[in-house]
UniProtKB/TrEMBL annotation:
Name of the protein in question: Alpha/Beta hydrolase protein
Secretion signal span: none
GO cellular component: membrane
One of the GO BP terms on file: proteolysis
Originating species: Mycena maculata
UniProt-listed Pfam families: Abhydrolase_1
Record keywords: Hydrolase
Length: 309
């Protein structure tokens, strides 16, 4: 099989309140204009504040189904413009900022009239809102992978799993959260135990997953501002985020995915299944939050068949 065409670029993203010019970095794998290509798939990474690296594995769909893949780094992370001076500014780091960025990219790449969306975790939160509120005519399929329908349900799920951790790990988490030292190496190591069970069970953790999540350490501005210090205590504006009242507005075929050991447990994603009119839900029995890595072959088969249906 011949290598896929790869194009990298940047698109200007005008944000009047940024105080400086902003750009969104993107990569296209596959040919958007080839007669043999299918509708492009735009992949939205999680975090907020991770980057695209751990979603490049979706190139499998380009190779097997001729689906062009578009990945990008959301503003504030990866190769896109960083704004560390906006740390703590909840009037700047809003959901609408990222929705505007997505619209800007779709228009720049001239795919806004015919595209599919796959959002992982926070990326699915963005994707679901994009689909529900805007109901764009060009959106044809939506994949919500390990995506919470409500952050209150998400926190309940995280703390239920936390209660199953070894007692010494729980004690470390409690101590540093009480002391406000969640940036300590000991605390991060304890969180790592949690992630090894519920973020990605592959050992060692794949390099692209480490790279993607490593951006939160390199520049924690977006994550700390919108989310907070950890998955267990969300103190940013995302603590009140919910799609439960708007999910019924999603009018395209939607695929909901989660894993048995996922941070997005069944009750966290169930409202999507209950409310979206045309929806299918698949749970991966051997996976946590990185379904596309942990059960790669099955994942690509299910997603690929859904997108070309």
């Amino acid at each position: 099989m011949s290598p896929s065409k790869v194009v990298e670029g940047e698109v200007d993203f005008v944000v009047p309140t940024a105080g400086k010019p902003c750009k969104t970095w993107y990569k296209i794998i596959g040919d958007l204009t080839a007669p043999t290509s299918r509708r492009p798939l735009v992949a939205l990474h999680g975090g907020p504040g991770v980057n695209h690296a751990y979603l490049l594995i979706l190139e499998d769909l380009t190779k097997t189904q001729s689906i062009p893949l578009i990945v990008y780094d959301q503003i504030g992370t990866g190769y896109s413009t960083h704004l560390p001076e906006k740390m703590g500014d909840t009037t700047f780091w809003t959901e609408q900022l990222f929705l505007d960025e997505l619209d800007n990219l779709l228009t720049h790449l001239s795919v806004q009239k015919d595209y599919d969306l796959l959002g992982h975790s926070w990326g699915g939160m963005l994707g679901s809102r994009h689909a529900a509120i805007q109901q764009p005519k060009g959106l044809k399929h939506l994949v919500l992978a390990s995506t919470p329908a409500d952050m209150g349900l998400w926190v309940v799920s995280q703390n239920a799993f936390r209660a199953q951790l070894p007692l010494d790990v729980q004690d470390i988490l409690d101590k540093h959260e009480k002391n406000g030292t969640t940036d300590s190496e000991e605390y991060q190591a304890a969180v790592g135990v949690f992630y090894s069970r519920h973020l990605c069970t592959i050992k060692p953790m794949p390099g692209p997953v480490l790279e993607g999540f490593g951006w939160i350490q390199k520049d924690p501005t977006v994550y700390l501002t919108m989310n907070g210090p950890s998955e267990f205590h969300i103190t940013g504006p995302l603590k009140d985020w919910s799609m439960i009242k708007d999910a019924h507005k999603i009018n395209v075929p939607t695929l909901v995915l989660n894993g048995r050991y996922d941070q997005a447990q069944d009750p966290v994603v169930a409202p999507f299944f209950s409310e979206i009119p045309r929806v299918k839900w698949v749970t991966f029995a051997e996976s946590s939050h990185m379904l596309h890595w942990e059960e790669r072959e099955r994942y690509m088969s299910i997603v690929g068949n859904f997108l070309v249906d």
